[in-house]
Amino acid sequence: DHGEGGTFALYSKLCRHARVSSLPNFQAADEELSAAYKKDDDDDAGFISSNEDFGVDGKSEKSRVRLTLENHKVLRKVLLILALIGASMVIGDGALIPAISVFSAVSGLEFSASKHTHDYIVVPAACVILIFLFSLQHFGTHRVGFLFAPIVITWLLCISAIGLYNIIHWNPHVYQALSPYYMYKFLRKTQRGGWMSLGGILLCITGSEAMFANLGHFTQLSIQLAFSFVVYPSLILAYMGQAAYLSKHHPIDSNYVGFYISVPEEIRWPVLVIAILAAVVGSQAVITGTFSIVKQCSALGCFPRVKIIHTSSKIHGQIYIPEINWRLMLVCLAITIGFNDTKRMGNAAGLAVITVMLVTTCLMSLVIVICWKRSIFIAIGFIFFFGSLEALYFSASLIKFLEGAWVPIALSLIFLMIMYVWHYGTLKKYEFDVQNKVPINWLLGLSPNLGIVRVRGIGLIQTELVSGIPAIFSHFVTNLPAFHQVLVFLCVKFVPVPHVRSEERFLVGRIGPKEYRIYRCIARYGYRDNNKDEHEFEKDLVCSIAEFIRSEKPEHDGKRKKENAEDDSDENLTVVGSFSADIDGIRLCEEEPETSGSSGLKELSSSRAASEKTETKMTTKQPKKRVRFVVPESPEMNNETEEELQELMEAREAGMAFILGHSYVRAKSGSSLIRRIVVNYGYDFLRRNSRGPSYALSVPHASTLEVGMVSYV
């Protein structure tokens, strides 16, 4: 999905081509963002978009499948749950793969210790390495990434050389095992026993299911080239070498790992060190893939808000999530200590791997029809060929439920419940807000000063609504008859595209007549975009409103009142770029009062700043920063526009206050027992323990005001 991978990347791709999105506040203006990506999807698929893309031809295969999904709520829920299952399994991989990778690598210590000291060496060593691995995550991949390539290349060359040595030394004819005939012969001879052993084979491909979730770090071509010409040949030589050794050494202790037995004793210690380093690198890749999946789920409203730290200023895909990192570490240590056995760990990891692959195959078949507009028979052939193979391995893994395979199922159920409860509660709360929003007629019936005292500054009201006035506003005005001279209803939302360009970041509009000084601002982000810090966000927000005021077409207030009363949709919103992207628009400068202004552009500065300069110095040790707008010379502004910009400047100079709605969500009377448990306990617990809006995390407490309300859903 334009440089992003994973099950949720496929889901967002489907959401752009069919109305199956789980986001409740999707607008018509967001279709323009999706349209650009849909055109690129068509170009990537190798054809030009036609009317079928918009469902005009209702007889087309793509339209029939799309309309079936759109018209059946149950199918949309099944599609969402399918994507959540794949995501929850990948998150579970973040605990399973490091555990088995490090434990199997450290198990080489068995050869230097007796069986009685096994528990005192292997398990503690594996736990220490895992704690060290998860503790390093907050430094970011880029700080130690320069070591990854040499370690992996050394490891691949090492296992290739050992495999080649074993082939030549023990059984040169083992290359015949590459023939599919022997696979058929093995299954025919062993029958049920051979089918059950397929679950162990999945360990050979562990990690590949999360490989494309790391597209934020690597390109698609680099993964294809590295896997086809380096990784795959090395693995084939390694496994052929082990097979050659085992063909001449049948009576071995099954408790030992086959790889270390086939390693010559003279180089066993160096290989052990390289194996541990390679296990750490492989685990690191899976953990970062887990962070990427969690961020995608959170952005699309399917995971509680968590703290996301961007560890690299150059590569946007490198992130760190503390809450997920430490919980994964605890689960990983519990699996390592509890199982203490690579066989049961392998059964657990194998089921997680094949489940993610099965989910990916199902979503991919829909992408073939809906997004790529290929024949439905191609999709059926795709899912039949790959799905049948994966179903064979899936059934072989599932039969080992009591031998460790229950772990990924339990982990995925926990994560699935968390994600679905959060999504359900968020959706119901938004529906309640929409039903109880205040009509604009109520606002128009007030006097220009809203019947209350207007104080200096900007009041920023956080809301999830993209139209209408939230009930929190009337609730606040009723209990506190004072408000700021400039009001902004702010909605920060994510759209199902990877990235939103800075030039299309904000949607800005006006609520009521000009003299009300009330604006609506919608900040849009893709599910892989980086949120700026609080100060930069404030500057972008004020500049977007100023640019909207400057570029707004003059209209009669009577006409505006009529339009706003009849329609509170997003038709009157204007797309405005962010402060950093709009080089031709208004720029905001904040400086100390003593600093001289720049020349070359028309400046609009606060007259009140000059008149109160002396007073400010007398009352405070550190005077407030002087705020001014640098406005392009053309087009010329009328006096009314300059006056409005002047007032916005003065409000910005006075400061900005954040008014956050604090809703207590409760199930309404008459609800079923399950709904009461989900809403009153499940969603309420997640909401109280999740992060607040990202832009408000660093806002001083003195500038934040929470307004409490109870929402009955």
UniProtKB/TrEMBL annotation:
The chain crosses the membrane at residues 78-100, 120-139, 146-168, 193-213, 225-247, 267-287, 348-369, 376-399, 405-422. InterPro entries: K+_transporter (IPR003855), K_trans_C (IPR053952), K_trans_N (IPR053951). It comes from Tamarix hispida. Residues 554-564 have a biased composition (Basic and acidic residues). It is a multi-pass membrane protein. This is Potassium transporter. Pfam families: K_trans (PF02705), K_trans_C (PF22776). Residues 554-574, 592-624 are annotated as: Disordered. Residues 1-443 form the K+ potassium transporter integral membrane domain. Residues 596-607 have a biased composition (Low complexity). PANTHER family: OSMOTIC STRESS POTASSIUM TRANSPORTER, POTASSIUM TRANSPORTER 8. Keywords: Ion transport, Membrane, Potassium, Potassium transport, Transmembrane, Transmembrane helix, Transport.
